[in-house]
Amino acid sequence: MRAAVLHEIGQEKLEVLDDVEAVGFGPGKVRIRVRATGLCHSDVSAMSGVLPQPAPFVPGHEGAGEILDVGDGVTGLNPGDRVLLCWLPACGTCAACKRGQTQLCLAGFMNAGVPNFKRPGGDVFGFAGTGTFAEEVVVAAGCAVPIPDDVPFDIAALIGCGVTTGLGAAINTAKVEAGSSVAVIGCGGVGISAIQGAKLKGAAQIVAVDPVESRREAALRFGATEAVAPDALADAKQRITAGEGFDYVFEVVGKSATARTAYETTRRGGTLCVVGAGALDDFLQLNMFELFFDEKKILPSMYGGGDVLTSYERAIALWRAGRIDLASLITHRVPLAGINEAIDQMRTGVALRTCIEI
């Protein structure tokens, strides 16, 4: 089958090969024919080494498709079922799951160290234990979440990561209050979803911050009340909050520099929500006096900060009701053979989300 492979960490481009085989099928596993997958910034971060991932590997973790086969012991799933892929499934038995913090379950991370594919030259891993830039993938049954027939594969793929992460950051983690002021730094697919979440929660002012003009324009269509370049954020803070700072600031870039800016843009007693996934060696510096004196809440948000299955259902319900716009998040579409074009669109900021149709 065909799959897009990164041979070594740090390479700029993927190679689409036709000699890749999905492996590991057996008890407790399902084999899925991938129909659509989104390119998430985390995929590019794994390629560059910002996020840890063994190589060679097939990127992609935001996907949807049809079940081809189910292994022994799998219940509730059958060949032909339409599913989205959950890259962080909950085991249901660990301490985090028992506390109700299923998004912190580590079982899914253990899958990242087990090869999902093989080639004549050896094993190939799947990013985050999945690897959706492939025609087929074998995953644990818990990674396959059934979707209703009226949800298209491309919409389901977005719900599998970016939409759930952004919406959840605003709804689950920050718990944005009606009438509040919000700033979102980084307005790709996840940032736009955070904007939609803040709008749903009734924020009065939502300022989108991004260096790319087309993304700023898009943010206004999705619910931002104002959109500015990074160098205009200080002025927006002064105009909108009289210099006090925003009630909620979402950092959706994953860099200490933007996190520091976000901290300084948050009012005393306000909430900084860290959504972007950054590098192990990128440190955010705060002095102990400001940490105490400002009483700002710093809330990291992992995969939307809540039970992902509940978040999936909520996103589908909101989409059906027309309360969130998911179709417009997909600004570009390419076939698997054009995957490097999609990566260029991500790196330049041209795309909110590129859908790879497989």
Describe this structure in words.
It is a single chain. By secondary structure, this protein is an alpha/beta fold. 29% of the residues lie in helices and 26% in strands. Strands 4, 6, 7, 10, 11, 18 and 19 form a seven-stranded mixed beta sheet that branches. Strand 13 (205-209), helix 7 and strand 14 (226-228) form a beta-alpha-beta unit. The radius of gyration is 20 Å and the shape is globular.
Write the layout of secondary structure elements.
Blueprint: E1 3-5, E2 15-17, E3 21-22, E4 29-38, H1 41-48, E5 57-58, E6 62-70, E7 82-85, H2 95-98, H3 107-110, E8 117-119, E9 122-126, E10 136-140, E11 144-146, H4 153-159, H5 162-173, E12 181-185, H6 189-200, E13 205-209, H7 213-221, E14 226-228, H8 233-241, E15 246-251, H9 256-265, E16 266-274, H10 288-294, E17 297-300, H11 308-320, E18 330-335, H12 339-348, E19 353-357
Parallel strand pairs: 5-9, 12-13, 12-15, 13-14, 15-16, 16-17, 18-19
Antiparallel strand pairs: 1-2, 3-8, 4-6, 4-10, 4-19, 6-7, 7-11, 8-9
Helix pairs in contact: 5-6, 5-11
